Task: inverse folding
């Protein structure tokens, strides 16, 4: 079974630009979560999508948004990039159901975003 | 909101020594998961603990969930160089819907 695929692996952007990251979950997984990982802040939860609906959101500004498609693939968008947005963005899919939340997370390799 | 802390932040051990990382939550957890992230890699799920006082073993790794379901530990016996990486705990509170990750413990094993 193929794992979680994230594209692109690396991105370099300039302040003020916007960026879109893509995540293809494991087949059969309907839940997709996004995390930001930085050396100082660790793994910070951005949001979770389930069946094309955002059902959880972390403490990030509105510049961070996402969506999920009918095939469970998900995209994350960051607008008006700031230097502090430089991080590893990880996507994780799971078998979390409509009212169950304790299934393991399967992470992709991440997208390393550098903002200059 | 819920906070999850881990100690120590870093641990350097000689190969063959034991290692323990501790995880503490500010709120009671319904369950806790542990992940390992190798340098340059992504977090990989190790185990999930659900019951109060639960102990699970995976070869040289022993995981414990506290009686009050607010803390957990991971103990590695006789570390090997393949154990190098950062170990994260992630807790799901009784009222929460998403796991809150601890800051991780970075383990270095000297051969």
Result:
């Amino acid at each position: 079974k193929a794992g979680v695929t994230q594209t692109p692996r690396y991105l370099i952007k300039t302040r003020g630009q916007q960026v879109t990251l893509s995540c293809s979950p494991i087949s059969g997984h309907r839940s997709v979560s996004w995390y930001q990982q930085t050396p100082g802040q660790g793994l910070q939860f951005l949001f979770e999508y389930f069946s094309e609906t955002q059902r959880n959101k972390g403490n990030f500004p509105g510049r961070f948004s996402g969506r999920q498609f009918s095939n469970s693939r998900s995209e994350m968008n960051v607008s008006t990039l700031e230097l502090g947005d430089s991080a590893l963005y990880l996507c994780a899919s799971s078998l979390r159901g409509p009212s169950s939340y304790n299934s393991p997370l399967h992470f992709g390799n991440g997208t390393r975003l550098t903002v200059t | 909101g819920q906070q999850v802390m881990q100690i120590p932040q870093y641990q350097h051990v000689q190969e063959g020594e034991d290692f323990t990382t501790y995880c503490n939550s500010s709120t009671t957890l319904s369950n806790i998961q542990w992940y390992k992230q190798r340098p340059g890699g992504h977090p990989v799920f190790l185990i999930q603990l659900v019951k109060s006082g639960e102990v699970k073993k995976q070869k040289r790794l022993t995981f414990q969930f506290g009686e009050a379901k607010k803390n957990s530990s991971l103990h590695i016996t006789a570390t090997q160089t393949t154990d190098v990486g950062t170990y994260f705990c992630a807790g799901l509170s009784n009222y929460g819907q998403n796991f809150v990750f601890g800051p991780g413990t970075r383990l270095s094993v000297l051969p």
Summary: Residues 12 and 26 of chain A are 27 Å apart (CA to CA). The longest strand of chain A covers residues 42-50. Chain A touches chain B at residues 33, 35, 42-45, 48, 55-56, 58, 90, 92, 101-102, 104-110 (CB under 8 Å).
